Amino acid sequence: MADRRNDQQVHPLSQNYNHDAVSNFKRDEESASRESDEIRRKKRIRYLAYFAAFVVFQTGIIVLFSLTVMKIKTPKFRVQSATFETFNVGTATNASFNFRMNAEVGVKNNNFGTYKFQNSTISFFYDGTPIGEAMVPDSKSGWLSTKKLNVAVDLSSNNLTSNSQLENDLNSGVLKLNAQSKLSGKVTLTFMFKKKKSTNMDCTITVGFAERVVRDINCK
User: Fold this and answer.
1) Would you say 219 and 79 are in contact if contact means Cβ atoms under 8 Å apart?
2) Which residue numbers delimit the Late embryogenesis abundant protein LEA-2 subgroup domain (predicted)?
3) Which of 47, 163, 169, 204 is the most exposed, having the fewest neighbouring CB atoms within 10 Å of its CB?
4) Residue pLDDT, tens place only, 90-126
C-alpha cells in the first residue's frame, strides 16, 4: 500500500519536469533563432556597406580616369630655339635684311596617347608683311613627350613696301619677327579612341643685330 502511494506521488512530478524541459527547450530554440536572424541581418548590412563603398570607389576611379587619362588636351606648337646660318643687314639709309635661319620647333603632347599630325607651313612676318616660309613634315609626338623638328627658312625684307619701321629697328639694334602656323592631327588614346586636334603657333622672335643672335622667343 505504501509503495502504491509513493508511485502516485512520483508520477505527477515527472510530468511537470518534462513539461518544464520542453518549455525551456522551446525558449532556447526561439532565442537561438532570434540570434541567428540578428546575425544574418548584421551580415546583410555589412555586405551592403561593402558594396556601397565599392561603388563609390569605382565611381571615383572612373571620374579620375576621365578627368586625367581620357581628357584630350590641345598639343602645343612652339619655336623653341633658332640660330642664323647667314646674317646680312643693310644700313640705316639702305634698310634691308637677309637671313637664313635654322629653327628648332617642338610639338608638345600632354596626352596619354600619341598625336599624329599632318605636314604644315610656318609663315614668318615682319611688321605684318610675309618675309619667308618653312615646311614642317608630317610626324607624330609620343604620349607625354615633345617631338622636336628642325626647319630652315630664308627671311628677306624684299617684300616690304616701306622701310621706315625697319630703319627705326636698325637704329635700335632690335628686330622683332613673328612666326605663325596651324598644325592639324589626331590624338589616339588606348589605341582605340581618336579625336581630331589642331594647334596654333604664334611666336614673337626678337633678333639682336649687334650679336647676330636670337635674344628671346615668346609664344602665346
Assistant:
1) yes
2) 105-204
3) 47
4) 887 789 999 999 999 999 999 989 999 999 999 999 9
Whole-model pTM?
Answer: 0.70
User: How many angstroms separate the CA atoms of 156 and 132, rounded?
Assistant: 7
Three-state helix/strand/coil letters over the chain: CHHHHHHHHHHHHHHHHHHHHHHHHHHHHHHHHHHHHHHHHHHHHHHHHHHHHHHHHHHHHHHHHHHCCCCCCCCEEEEEEEEEEEEEECCCCCCCEEEEEEEEEEEEECCCEEEEECCEEEEEEECCEEEEEEEECCEEECCCEEEEEEEEEEEECCCCCCCHHHHHHHHHCEEEEEEEEEEEEEEEECCCEEEEEEEEEEEEEEEECCCCEEEEEEEC
What are the cell numbers at 207?
A: 633678333
pLDDT tens for residues 172-187?
999 999 999 999 999 9
- Contact in structure between 39 and 82 (CB atoms under 8 Å): no
